[in-house]
Amino acid sequence: MERIAFALFAAIAVGGGLVALFHRSIVHSAFALMGTFLGISGLFVLLGADFLAVVQLLIYVGGILVLILFGLMLTKPDPSERKLRRVLLVLAAVAVPAAILVARIASAARWAAAEGPLPDPKPAAREIGFLFLLKDAYLIPFELAAFLLTVALVGAVFLARQPHPPPPGGEDR
Amino acid sequence: MSLGAYLAVATALFVLGLAMMIARRNLLYVLMGIELILNAANLNFVAFARYAAPAGGEAALRGQVFALIVILLAVAEAAVALAIVLHAYSLFDTVRPEEPDLLRE
Predict the structure, then answer these.
(1) pLDDT for res B104
(2) What is the pLDDT of residue B105?
(3) Do the chains contact at B19 and A64, CB–CB below 8 Å?
(4) Quick check: B13 and A39 in contact, CB under 8 A?
(5) By mean pLDDT, which of A9-18, B36-45, B46-55 is the weakest?
(6) What's the number of domains chain B is made of?
(7) DSSP code per residue over B1-17
(8) What average pLDDT does the structure give for chain A?
(9) Does residue B51 sit within a domain?
(10) Residue B1: its chain A contacts at CB < 8 A?
């Protein structure tokens, strides 16, 4: 059962990524990326990270993807930009070294990883909440993350404003 | 399932994201490729956390906490990067990543 679910989610994730890479239209690519995020969310569920799976759905499918779609709507895409030859070449040039590297690492490393069927995972949301709020756990990263989000959002608003019109008599741009 | 299967999926996603960043000539594809790469890294974090500490406890959650912080960084990065893309589009009227070359002049 777990094997079937893993195969399904992995196929959705990798297939979505392939479609996103190869499709001619960037809108279709963005929607294929939604499949990838959904598949990864399913893999998180299989790994016992229930809270992370929900966060993945909320943030990626509900947030970042919508942000990218807004970016698509506000810019003019170049429909002839995809050159199949270039995409295939780059994919091969990236995939072959990555595959060799990962195969070497996987054969050389001695991870203290459990094999076989693992015990059922416990619900993680409550424990993660405690970890983020305890002083000797992850309270400082939590506060720093809040600070970073504030700075990033204010900065994004500042950057995304319309550029100032050129001063009179000055050069354009 | 074994740890290696999850690592293989994460590697495939990383490769796809990197190829998307390099091969497609649109700034928004670069953004999407970065998101794919960060997702692959997250999958690795969670898979290692699950298989290195199958009994649970704080060690099993460490990877998940790290993945949460990576998601948060990805959100901040996406917001700022999209703002930069829109700004560049209004300046140069294109989303091709090799067009803006003001510093070269």
Answers:
(1) 80
(2) 73
(3) no
(4) no
(5) B46-55
(6) 1
(7) --HHHHHHHHHHHHHHH
(8) 86
(9) yes
(10) 2-3, 6, 46
Among A59, A98, A157, beta carbon nearest to B71: A59
Tens-digit pLDDT profile for residues B59-80: 778 888 999 999 999 999 999 9
> Could you say which residues from 68 to 87 on chain B have a Cβ atom under 8 Å away from some Cβ of chain A?
68-69, 71-80, 82-87
Q: What is the pLDDT of residues B5-19, one digit of tens each?
A: 898 999 999 999 999
**What pLDDT band is residue A161 in, cutting at 50, 70 and 90?**
confident
Distance CA A124, CA A127 (A): 5
> A131 to chain B, minimum CA–CA distance in Å?
8
Question: Cβ B39–A60 below 8 Å, yes or no?
Answer: yes
* A121 Cβ contact partners less than 8 Å away, ≥ 6 residues apart: A47, A48, A49, A50, B50, B56, B60
Interface contact B98, partner A, CB < 8 A = no
Residue B26, in any domain of the structure: yes
Please name the member of B20, B73, B78 whose beta carbon is closest to the beta carbon of A20: B20
CATH number at residue B92: 1.10.287.3510
Size (chain B), residues: 105
Tens of pLDDT, residues A57-110: 999 998 899 999 998 998 888 777 788 888 899 999 999 999 998 888 878 777
Tell if the CB–CB gap between A121 and B50 is shorter than 8 Å.
Answer: yes
Place of tokens 């990326």: A33
Number of C-beta neighbours around residue A154 at 10 A: 10
Q: Is residue B104 part of a domain?
A: no
In CATH terms, A1-79 corresponds, of 1.10.3810.10, 1.10.3720.10, 1.20.120.1200, 3.30.470.20, to 1.20.120.1200
Judged by CB atoms closer than 8 Å, whether chains meet at A91 and B42 is answered as: no
